[in-house]
Please model this.
Amino acid sequence: MKKQIFFFSIFIFNILISATCIFADSIPTLADTLETKEKMIVYKFDIKEQIAPPVWRTTQNAFKKAVEMDADLIIIHMNTYGGMVDAADSIRTKILNSKIPVYVFIDNNAASAGALISIASDSIYMVEGANIGAATVVNQTGEVVPDKFQSYMRSMMRSTAEAKGRNPDIAEAMVDPSIYIPHVSDSGKVLTFTTSEAIKNNFCEGKAESIDGVLRLAGHENYEIISHSLSPLDKVINFLINPVVSGVLIMLIIGGLYFELQTPGIGFPLAASAAAALLYFAPLYLEGLASHWEILLFIIGIILLLVEIFAIPGFGVAGVLGVLLMVTGLTFAMVESIGDNPFKVDILPLTKAFFTVIIAVFLAMAGSIYLSRKLFTTTAFGHLALDAVQDKNKGFTSADSDYTSMVGKTGKAHSILRPSGKVMIEAEIYDATAISGFIDEGQSIQVISYHTGQLFVKKHLD
Model:
């Protein structure tokens, strides 16, 4: 009995020893787990190009991914000369409303719209020799725009600086050269800070040479940096939503429709126009900018325009309404709606989108008319059109004896002639054109001449 108790005691002792070893081995693993959880997640993305809709899209995606992975900090690696104010304002608002702290690392330049974005961040760090400021609003040619736009930019810079505890007067001086701040902005020039000047005036928290340097200056040691990367689809969408590319696509849409109307049947111009429309609306729809109603407006506009051209003589209400619907659809598709109201948008982006569409339509029409004349008269691409002349002196004629006999006869307008329409002569209906003014339906007419396959008429007094 004692022997059995002895062996049982040894068995229990071995179990306790084994359990102790297992627990001891697990202690480092538990420590590693705690250390992993305590490691700071830093999400980094770049703004190193002109600030435009593609950069705004990248910012949205980067913030979304940072939230999904529960990041502790977002760092923007910046080097930009500025860009579009509306896109910069959207990025600024995104940063101001972010629950995750946002740092900006200026790696050389943060000019104009870049300065606005930087001031919106929680902390700014700059490399040696970097610059921030020069936020005066200019147009595409570099000329200063009217004070109406400058006032809006001044207000944004002031409110952004106030929100982050920075001097609003200094922020405003980066837009307005008339702002006087002793020993800071007293030269009558738009204010731009170097790295040391920005640090001195609380527009920079410190000088660093890298992202790691930024984090060390901010007091972070245990961290993991995750860089935002663009997928191939992101790159394609960013390319297509660029305002310049959007303008080119609009030109292809309008130009394709014009050339299709100049040629019989359905061919390559219509296919090119349809492809351009797809490339224009698809990325905007995927990004939530273009809605169903905007695409529907564009399609209805095309239908009304075709009906006006092929079914209704002249150019009236249907044609004008078709053009307006097309322009409206193309314009609103480029602008992000505010809230649930699809017609509630920021006026500045809407104005830019409208002028982009109008300019693109004008250039498309002018270019199409020019190219149509060149293509069908040049021999560089062979004979795209018949150039033989059917001379009347050689016996060629398009006149029908029935039509030529109509000259001098009278009848009534079967439809409104504005100036084209239909007339009834001797119980037969013919296409006709009024030589001057409009002729109301039912009014008496007289055939004046016939040429190029068309009867020409005038009002006839009974």
User: Anything to note?
Assistant: Residues 38-229 form a domain with the 2-enoyl-CoA Hydratase; Chain A, domain 1 fold (CATH 3.90.226.10). The chain has 15 helices and 15 strands. Residues 89 and 123 are 18 Å apart (CA to CA). Residues 2-38 form the longest helix (37 residues).
